[in-house]
């Protein structure tokens, strides 16, 4: 026998694996958020960049701290801390003070993720945990909104006024405190209002205002098979269908507030959403229903954050709806 | 042509069918043939020869009286130099007959026949068994057993499995292209045996040429009870259960067999072997094997004698880099070998050789599960691999069982898709084995308990009598 250089590795099948990794998935999420993040700089000015950077850096530091405290292996390479930081920034008012962003990021990563064991073990969305801590701690900062800085020539709000000093209310806030009619009159026509919501030239959290930019990112994630279409489509669909029952304009209801951001980027968080196909459907309907209820009956104008966090809490229950196993038949099928 | 498929689940890995256009070449017979006495699923054979005996090609050298078994035959002529345990590519050490090839290629006398039509079913089944035919797709289940279902089961359809969904492997493709008549005749023989009215050959879309060749041959043979259907190129389309669902929309019940839904599924290579056994009287002494992978210098489809050691194949074809992984079977379900001293057996559909790239093809380091649900979405059995894996890691057999772990077909899809590179398939396999072992122990316990109870009852029955007698 010829003398070949042989040094055999023995591993269990399969011997080929898909190229997708945890970090490639997170990279895709970052790419998907990018349009809305870049848009936020155009809409709210350079302040946005500051909030984004502070949020990401704090999240990374929080992850490192968490790994040290809980004796975990370094995990920055999976990029999930960066994603959480970016997502948190998107949910904050552009005018947030820097120290509040830091508190939000540390709360989200440490309380929302690391104490549960790190990536994959968190029952709640870390970014939303961080945001909810800020919401109950500094409600004033969390509900102070600046007017969009530039107009892009599509909306008639925010004339050439100096930025930062001018505060405004979010469209949903105006509806809650005043009326939908008042909101429409502020924008002139319904079409103008829709346009502003679509392109994002309204007051609101840093990354939530432009339905268009979020939609681009969402479609990218679905096309790349990073997220299942079921959760965002059914969540948004549920809000669309239920809103008219409460006398709300369905199109306005889905475009306004944080619904697109929540539906594509928050509710789809792997760790805090169901893993079964039907579980995802029920979960999406559930949070859609809660969103409409909170918007209508609570003192908050927006209900996306609380709906998703409540939905997260019920995930183990939704996951009980297991897929049909091949060759195992229900009583109905057996009767046939 | 309509394209059939199963759902849900499945993946489409890089096909890597490097050898699909290479015709079969007859591989030279090895100087030493190592023929394991058990190459099938079932009972082991006893040797029929002794050390020092001279054997001819095709001579039966091992058989068993157990029902689930298939004999083995000498694949070279020469002297039996040893009968000893050798490592089999399945990972088990099996008693094997070692024959020194005298290169005279002296065959036992064969008596070919023109047609099988006048032979009764029982006779055909007997021929198939005597010629050592087993499933050549990889499972190596004795074909004669598959073709003799219990009396109460009616078989209406024979499906010829030409899906060949494993990447790299191309033997079935070549069998269909080069031996279409033998494949079709094999289906006809099985239809005759089982009384099935319909024969279907299912071919994956990526082998359209083979489907066309088969279709033309069916026309030429004037058959109207055999047809070719296309199935979507998707792994594991060739899984028995998936293929039945794709082609006939039937689901084999959990724990059951294809015959429970009136079907026998047979690999096209097996069908060819059946035809050769029945018409040419040729025992299963060689088979088509795809030799592929980046490390082998001369990849191809070869007709190789059973018992040919991998080391001889490597010597003959040459390596172009350091061999780091030697896989018997396909990349999804094949078995990585610890040594090159393992022989080709009846179930060997392919031998893949890779260099260092093998380590990147299947990264082994696990990271935490991120609950992405890819494994749930792609499981072709509708299982929740992530949860069975959790149960397996905790050795929680009960939970694994309620999650239908035993329905897992071990296709490897969950491990393939996992972005965290978790060893799902491996852990699910091990929990399955643990469940089966536990069931056996419990059955034995139950039997012992019943025996003890019966004994006690007898004692009780006897004791009052004794009192009376006293």
From TrEMBL, chain A:
GO biological processes: electron transport chain; transmembrane transport
One Pfam family from the record: NQR2_RnfD_RnfE
Superkingdom classification of source: Bacteria
Names of required cofactors: FMN
Topology term for the membrane: Multi-pass membrane protein
Cell location: Cell membrane
InterPro entries in UniProt: NqrB/RnfD, RnfD_bac
Residues bearing PTM FMN phosphoryl threonine: 170
EC number: 7.-.-.-
GO CC list: plasma membrane
Transmembrane domains' residue ranges: 25-43, 49-69, 98-116, 128-146, 196-222, 229-246, 252-269, 281-298
Keyword terms: Cell membrane, Electron transport, Flavoprotein, FMN, Membrane, Phosphoprotein, Translocase, Transmembrane, Transmembrane helix, Transport
Subunit description: The complex is composed of six subunits: RnfA, RnfB, RnfC, RnfD, RnfE and RnfG.
Function text: Part of a membrane-bound complex that couples electron transfer with translocation of ions across the membrane.
HAMAP family assigned: RsxD_RnfD
Similarity field: Belongs to the NqrB/RnfD family.
Protein name listed in UniProt: Ion-translocating oxidoreductase complex subunit D
Organism, as annotated: Caldisericum exile
Automatic annotation (TrEMBL), chain B:
UniProt-listed Enzyme Commission number(s): 7.-.-.-
SUPFAM superfamilies named among the record's database cross-references: alpha-helical ferredoxin, Nqo1 FMN-binding domain-like
GO molecular function per UniProt: 4 iron, 4 sulfur cluster binding; electron transfer activity; metal ion binding
Cofactor(s) this protein requires: [4Fe-4S] cluster
Residue ranges occupied by any 4Fe-4S ferredoxin-type domain in the UniProt entry: 359-389, 399-429
Subcellular location: Cell membrane
Coiled coil (UniProt feature): none
Annotated residues for binding of [4Fe-4S] cluster 2: 379, 408, 411, 414
UniProt key word Phosphoprotein: no
Function noted in UniProt: Part of a membrane-bound complex that couples electron transfer with translocation of ions across the membrane.
Assembly and oligomerization: The complex is composed of six subunits: RnfA, RnfB, RnfC, RnfD, RnfE and RnfG.
Record-given protein name: Ion-translocating oxidoreductase complex subunit C
């Amino acid at each position: 026998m010829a003398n070949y250089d042989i040094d055999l590795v023995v591993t269990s099948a399969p011997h080929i694996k898909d190229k997708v990794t945890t970090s490639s998935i997170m990279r895709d999420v970052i790419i998907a958020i990018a349009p809305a993040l870049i848009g936020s700089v155009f809409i709210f000015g350079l302040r946005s960049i500051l909030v984004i950077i502070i949020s990401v850096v704090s999240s990374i530091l929080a992850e490192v701290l968490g790994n040290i405290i809980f004796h975990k292996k370094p995990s920055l390479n999976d990029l999930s801390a960066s994603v959480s930081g970016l997502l948190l920034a998107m949910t904050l008012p552009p005018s947030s003070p820097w120290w509040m962003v830091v508190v939000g990021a540390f709360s989200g990563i440490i309380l929302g993720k690391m104490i549960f064991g790190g990536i994959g073990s968190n029952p709640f969305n870390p970014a939303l945990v961080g945001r909810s801590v800020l919401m109950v701690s500094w409600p004033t900062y969390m509900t102070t909104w600046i007017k969009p800085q530039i107009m892009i020539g599509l909306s008639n709000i925010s004339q050439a006024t100096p930025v930062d000093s001018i505060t405004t209310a979010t469209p949903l806030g105006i509806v809650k405190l005043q009326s939908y009619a008042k909101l429409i009159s502020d924008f002139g026509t319904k079409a103008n209002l829709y346009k502003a919501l679509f392109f994002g030239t309204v007051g609101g959290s840093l990354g939530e205002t432009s339905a268009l930019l979020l939609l681009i990112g969402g479609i990218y994630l679905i096309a790349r098979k990073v997220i299942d279409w079921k959760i965002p489509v059914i969540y948004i669909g549920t809000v669309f269908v239920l809103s008219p029952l409460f006398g709300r304009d369905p199109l306005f209801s889905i475009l306004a507030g944080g619904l697109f951001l929540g539906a594509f980027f928050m509710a789809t968080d792997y760790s805090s959403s169901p893993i079964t196909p039907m579980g995802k459907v029920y979960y999406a309907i559930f949070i859609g229903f809660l969103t409409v209820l909170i918007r209508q009956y609570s003192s908050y104008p927006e209900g996306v954050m609380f709906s998703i966090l409540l939905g997260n809490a019920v995930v183990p229950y939704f996951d009980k709806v297991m897929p049909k196993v091949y060759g195992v038949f229900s009583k109905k099928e057996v009767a046939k | 042509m309509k394209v059939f498929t199963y759902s849900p689940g499945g993946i489409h890995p890089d096909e890597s069918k490097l050898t699909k256009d290479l015709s079969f070449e007859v591989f030279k017979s090895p100087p030493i043939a190592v023929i394991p006495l058990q190459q099938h699923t079932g009972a082991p054979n006893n040797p029929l020869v002794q050390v020092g005996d001279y054997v001819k090609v095709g001579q039966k050298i091992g058989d068993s009286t157990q029902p689930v078994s298939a004999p083995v035959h000498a694949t070279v002529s020469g002297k039996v130099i040893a009968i000893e345990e050798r490592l089999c590519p399945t990972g088990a050490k099996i008693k094997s007959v070692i024959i020194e090839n005298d290169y005279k290629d002296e065959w036992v006398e064969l008596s070919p026949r023109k047609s099988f039509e006048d032979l009764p079913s029982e006779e055909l089944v007997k021929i198939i068994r005597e010629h050592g035919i087993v499933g050549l797709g990889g499972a190596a289940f004795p074909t004669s057993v598959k073709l003799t279902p219990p009396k109460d089961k009616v078989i209406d359809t024979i499906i010829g499995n030409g899906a060949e969904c494993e990447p790299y492997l191309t033997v079935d493709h070549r069998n269909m292209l080069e031996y279409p008549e033998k494949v079709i005749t094999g289906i006809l023989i099985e239809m005759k045996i089982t009384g099935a009215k319909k024969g279907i050959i299912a071919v994956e879309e990526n082998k359209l040429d083979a489907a066309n060749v088969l279709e033309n041959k069916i026309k030429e043979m004037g058959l109207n009870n055999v047809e070719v259907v296309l199935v979507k190129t998707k792994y594991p389309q060739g899984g028995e259960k998936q293929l039945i669902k794709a082609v006939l929309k039937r689901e084999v019940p959990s724990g059951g067999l294809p015959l429970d839904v009136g079907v026998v599924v047979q690999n096209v290579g097996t069908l060819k072997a059946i035809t050769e056994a029945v018409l040419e009287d040729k025992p299963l002494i060689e088979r088509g094997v795809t030799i592929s992978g980046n490390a082998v210098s001369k990849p191809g489809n070869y007709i190789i004698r059973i018992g040919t050691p991998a080391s001889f194949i490597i010597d003959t074809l040459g390596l172009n880099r350091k061999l780091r992984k030697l896989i018997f079977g396909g990349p999804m379900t094949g078995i990585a070998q610890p040594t090159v001293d393992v022989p080709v057996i009846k179930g060997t559909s392919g031998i893949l050789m890779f260099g260092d790239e093998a380590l990147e093809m299947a990264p082994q380091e696990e990271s935490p599960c991120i609950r992405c649900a890819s494994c749930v979405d792609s499981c072709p059995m509708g299982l929740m691999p992530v949860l069975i894996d959790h149960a397996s890691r905790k050795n929680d057999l009960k939970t694994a069982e309620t999650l239908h772990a035993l329905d897992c077909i071990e296709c490897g899809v969950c491990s393939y898709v996992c972005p965290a590179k978790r060893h799902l398939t491996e852990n699910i396999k091990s929990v399955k084995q643990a469940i089966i072992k536990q069931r056996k122990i419990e059955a034995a316990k139950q039997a012992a308990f019943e025996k003890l109870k019966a004994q006690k009852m007898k004692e009780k029955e006897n004791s009052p009598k004794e009192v009376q007698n006293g």
